Structure formats: C-alpha cells, structure tokens
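Lecture 7, part 2: worked example. A protein chain together with pyridoxal-5'-phosphate.
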Amino acid sequence: MPPSSVTSGSWRSRDAAAVWHPFTQHASWLDDKPLVIDRADGPWLFDSDGVRYLDGVSSLWVTTFGHRVPELDAAVRDQLAKAAHSTFLGATHAPGIELAEQLLSVAPRDAESVSELAKVFYAGDGSSAVEAALKMAYQYGAQSGHNRPLFVHLSQAYHGDTLGAVSVGGIELFHATYRPILLRALTTGSPGVRAPGQSPQARAVEAIDELSALMAERGSEVCTIIVEPMIQGAAGMLTYDAAYLRACRRLADEYGALLICDEVAAGIGRTGRMWACEHAGIVPDLLICGKGLTGGYLPLSAVLATQAVYDAFLGPASENRTFFHGHTYTANPLSCAAALANLRLMAERNLVGQAAQLGERLGTLLAPLGSHPSVVEVRRLGTMTGIELRSVTERTGFAVCQAAQARGVLLRPLGDVVILMPPLALAQAETELLANAVIAAINDVT
Ligand SMILES: Cc1ncc(COP(=O)(O)O)c(C=O)c1O
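Predicted complex, written out as structure tokens:
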C-alpha cells in the first residue's frame, strides 16, 4: 500500500526546515515540489507516495546495473558482517587490495596493449580524487626538481566543487565567484565548443593549435594538463574529437607535464568503452574514477597512477617525498566491497558491451530530434547524451524535465541541455519509454 499523499508534503516541510541541499536555491526550493524518494528497484525509483519513476540519469550518473542488484546487495551485506570500517592509514584490508588489483586489470592500455597504470590511491568522491591527483601532479614535478606551479585545463571544464577542482573548472556560473581564492591555472579553449557548422575535426585542429601555443609559452611551469576525456559532461555533454586527446598526451610528454584524465563521469562504461580515453588509444599518467565505481551504491573514488609517478614518491622518510594526503574513510571496506562486486559483475555480464548497444539504441530512438525545430543539437558518446534545446522560457531544460516527470521519467537538466544518462543495463522497453518520454516532453513544452 502506498503511504498517503500527505507523506511527501510533510517530508518536504520538514526538509525545508532542516536541510541545505547541494546546487539548490532554497528561496524557491519548495516551489518545484521536489520528489521524496522512498525506495528503488532496478531502473525504477519510488517516491513516498508510491509513484514510480524511471531513473533516467542513474541517480546523478552513478548506477550501472540499477538499484538493489542482488549480487551488490550481498557483497555489502557480507562485508557488513565482517567490518563496516577500518582505517587504511597504517593498515590494509582485503576489499581494498582486491579492488585495486581488479581496477588495474581493467585499466586502459595503449596501442601496444601496455597499461602503464600500476598503483591505486583511494579517495571518497570525484572531487576529492581530483584534489589528490592535482597535488600528486604538483608534488611529482617538485620532487623531480622542477618548479611547476601551473595547472592547465579546458574552458567549460568541470572537475568538482572543492577548491582545487574549482581552480581547474571552466563553468562561469559555478566557478567565477571563487576565482580570487584559487590555484594558479591556465585555461585553454575547449575542443567541444564549435562554431555553427564547424566539424569536430576542424575544431580539434584549432584547439590543438591553441594548447600547443600555450605550452610553448608556459610549458616548463606546467605540472599537469587535466581533461575530461572525449566528453565534457557537466558543460552539457560537449563531445570532441579523439585527436585532441592524443595531442594532450603528446604535449604533456613534450613539456614534462603529467596528463590527468578525469573519468569520474565518463569512466566505468558510460561511453560504451570501459574508459573514455580508450576512444583515443592513450593512457594518462593519472586516471581518476568515481561515480559508477561502486555501481551507485556507496561513495568511493580512486586515482590510478603510473609506476613512474609512484616511484617519484619513494625515498627515506627524511626526504619528505611521502604523499601527505588521505581521508578518515579512505578505502572504506563497504565501498570497496560494493565496487569489487560491481566490477566483477560488469566483466561477467559484459556490461560495457551492453552499454555500447544501449548507446546505439538511444541514438536511433532520438534520431527524430535531429530535425526538431526546438532542438539545437543532440550530443552523445555511448550512453552519455545531451539534448540542447532552444530557449523558449526562462528554464526550458527544467520545464522539459518536469514534463518528463509527469510522464514517469526522472531527468535533470544542465541549463537548456536535457541530460540522459541511463543505467548501463537498461532493457529495451525502458529505453523506449525513456526516449519516447523525452521527445514527448520536448513537444509538450516547445
Ligand atoms: C568529470 C567530473 N569530475 C569530477 C566530478 C565531481 O565528482 P563528485 O560530485 O563525486 O565530487 C564530477 C561530477 O559530476 C565530474 O563530472
């Protein structure tokens, strides 16, 4: 029996009285009647009134198989019966070790099928892994005898909300406020921002020229080039040509900087490959993953580092080469157990192959939007999809998501871009429901 409809309303009032939500303007929070989620199953979310919604954005880009996956539930329960937490500082545990081994076994390989990534450093969320990677890159330079205080990033970049991550961010709305208190960073033009009619290849050539010029001028001061490989998610799924990523690899090598690929959003199968950098056949010096790592169960992120980077941190304690960085809950065993079960099940069921097929299916179903008068562009890499709308009201993207919600599909916009980021194991019928609902919602609003 669904609870009475009073339930959601009363939870909302209690929420408004006690809670401060992320990325939320609370002056109008209750106007939008936020859903109160009570439970979930597979690709479905149920609100506290018992109404069912398709989870079209994988609960903010995290679920892989969906919710309440028996194998993942069991892995967390089994670990819970042993220990919910023990520290990773000065001690270790089996789930942390086995997960590191599993991650390295699926790490990206270069054209010669060599994976240079050899060590795993754990963090909690995507942003905290970005912080760790930025500090590693700076310290690596310093310990190699170079003063390299500059971080190169793309315009439109999003790497999280902690101050290091904001320093290498390029989304004005989120980042401009904090500029006076940030690290020293250099911005280079995004290869994903194209002039009308410009091809991705032509834009990549321009963007490579700009990055080459920047590195020629300042390369000796740069400790890292950080990128979201192949697709800038939070900017509205801006896809770009693989040649750009290969140029980043080449220029980082040429000027002695590290290349960081932030795969927090695009990694773990979302683009139809395990890692987005595989589309370009390159391996970064530092690879960051998070979000889907635990299948959407618990917070956990990681930085995968090459042996060369790791080795630069070795030495007698008196030399202070230690990476003095970590968190209370680093490598929480419950999170590690969930991630290990997720990665094993992904391999067993070829979930990355399924994701590639899901992406193709979505592409076919959304094809009619290509000529829709209210749609500027549909951008997609694998399952990561952004539908950019022409503005017809103050919050067009939001209005379309509200219309989709009325049709039983939960989506979340980024400005006027409607994002689709379904669970990788989404079945055919639900994929059709998702695509049909978003097309109908766009028609409802525009
Ligand atoms: C590419 C990328 N990096 C980092 C982050 C930050 O991750 P978190 O929100 O887990 O801190 C995000 C979040 O969307 C992201 O898309």
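The CA atoms of residues 373 and 390 lie 8 Å apart. The longest helix spans residues 200-218. Keep this in mind for problem set question 3.
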